[in-house]
Amino acid sequence: MRRAVVAGVTLLLVGGVGYAAADVVDLAPGILTYDGAPVAPPTPTGSASASPAWAALPSAAPATATPSPTATAAGAAPTTAGLTKALAAIAKDPWLGPSVGISVRDGVTGAELYAVSPGVARAPASTLKVLSAFAVTKHVDLDAHMTTRVVTGDTPTEIVLVAGGDTLLGSGASDPHAVEGHAGLATLADEVAQSLTDRGAGAVTLRVDATYAAGPRYPATWKKEDIAAGFTQSVSMLDMVSQRAGGGRAAPAVPETGVAAVLAKALTARGHATTVLPLSGHGTPAPAGATELGAVESATYADHLGFALQHSDNALTENLVRQAMVAAGASPAAPLGPPQFVVRTLADAGVPTAGLRLLDVSGLSPGQTATATALADVVALGATGKDPAFLRAVASFPVAGLTGSLSDRYRGKETGSVAGIPRAKTGTLRGISSLAGTTVDADGHLLVFAVLTDRVPASSGTLGARAALDRFVTALTMCGCH
Hints:
By secondary structure, the protein is of the alpha+beta class. Helix content is 30%, strand content 14%. The strands form 2 sheets. It has a 5-stranded antiparallel sheet with strand order 2-1-10-9-8, sandwiched between helices. Helix 3 (128-139) crosses helix 9 (337-348), helix 3 packs across helix 11 (388-394) and helix 4 (185-198) packs across helix 6. The protein is elongated, with a radius of gyration of 23 Å. The chain starts with a helix and ends with a helix.
């Protein structure tokens, strides 16, 4: 029964989400994904590390379990007694350490079926992005696009590159089938060069307007060594894929300058010698009523949010929350504005905020806390269909053994039998490991789970805790538990 339910849900998501599970591999910072490595890789002080090199993925998307109202009729819900019998011993696995918070919910009703200290505040690591994603979906049209524009400036020979939020720009032609590089600077240069020619313009100067959703370059609580090591990058509203951090490579502190340089070179090659003016801060706004000379559109907000969740992208998550703030009429300029905005959004939706201490919206900063209750409540809002917009975000969580930060997990003897079924956001910091997501049990019933551990024993480390978490989710998935 479970496989039939899973297959049906997969068809629904292929049509509705627009983020192909089999087309993504977790190479971005924020998550430790080194299952099977002979030596555990270094974990940054404030985030988890990047994944290994490109992993082999199936050529076609498999049937995977994803929350949807279409799955709600299948199978009876497990009982608390049945779940306790199946999970209690695993919840006490020494590899998880002495601080464990668990909430398992009915994916149909949202009712809690099994719990271990779910209301105790614990460090969430990157599962905090689940809460941030919820805030994004509450305030942003997921089907809308970000527009990067060039408009006329204050003088006849000045043009202005206006940031619109897209940090996944490509340097070449726009690719309508991609998320990264969906909007391309070569295509933008073609349009702008033609407009300049039509206006009889020759050489021009180019300045950048990066004032949209502007805020601090980095949250104050991010550690400099994590930034320098390439585990994250500047939070901007204008960047391109080729400049992004990763693989131990730090990103430029002011990515807008690099984007402007690439565009200027492309315009010069098209017959309009272009000089880039220095950028101070975020620049100044383009003139009111300026004429548009060219524009390119990003993939949808849903695609970008899916990318951030799949790759646990810290800077992109911060970017999207800042854009959500602007959409809601709030300013992202204050240092703690984004995390406070997330907490307010959760409270407005009736999600318990006791125990939440957020310093950023990505989970990278040390000293943050959340609860299994809050995480499970939020995931359940999507899984039960009560919040269709957030369902789309939950549907983009990594899939066990296949995509994103779960691509190299659930492949061993103990957990491989459920590969392709659980779908979860991961979280890993030093001494911390967490999971929050959905699965379908042996009777075809949709379940929601959140597990936080933040005192992982040094003797087994994060890899040991991850293995124990995966065994927990495997037991939950294999269980009929009546």
